[in-house]
Amino acid sequence: MEDREKVLTWLEICGKNNECSGYCPYSENGFGKYGQCRESLMADAYDLLKEQKPRVVTLDELTKIYVEFKGDNCPIRLINFDLQKIIMHMDNGICRLWTDKPTDEQRKAVKWE
What we know:
By secondary structure, the protein is mostly helical. Helix content is 40%, strand content 9%.
């Protein structure tokens, strides 16, 4: 799987610049000419988008879930958990689940329902 944050960062950088300048992780030597590395970047972005289709979740992915409790500033990774209790807490608005550890900015941007 491609590094999502790397792809997002470089999509933003390449999308704002008409010419490549400076370091580029998608070129062979780290410094590429405009357009040379975009094919690799676009292929990685495409792969990430394809992963968004419904699919079977692996046990590894399930253990990467983070839970955030209302009023607590520290999301924690779920390792051993009772899914029924988590669902009950979610229904009561006590907690919410994240697919990965969110940043403070991400947590603040998503309103509690």
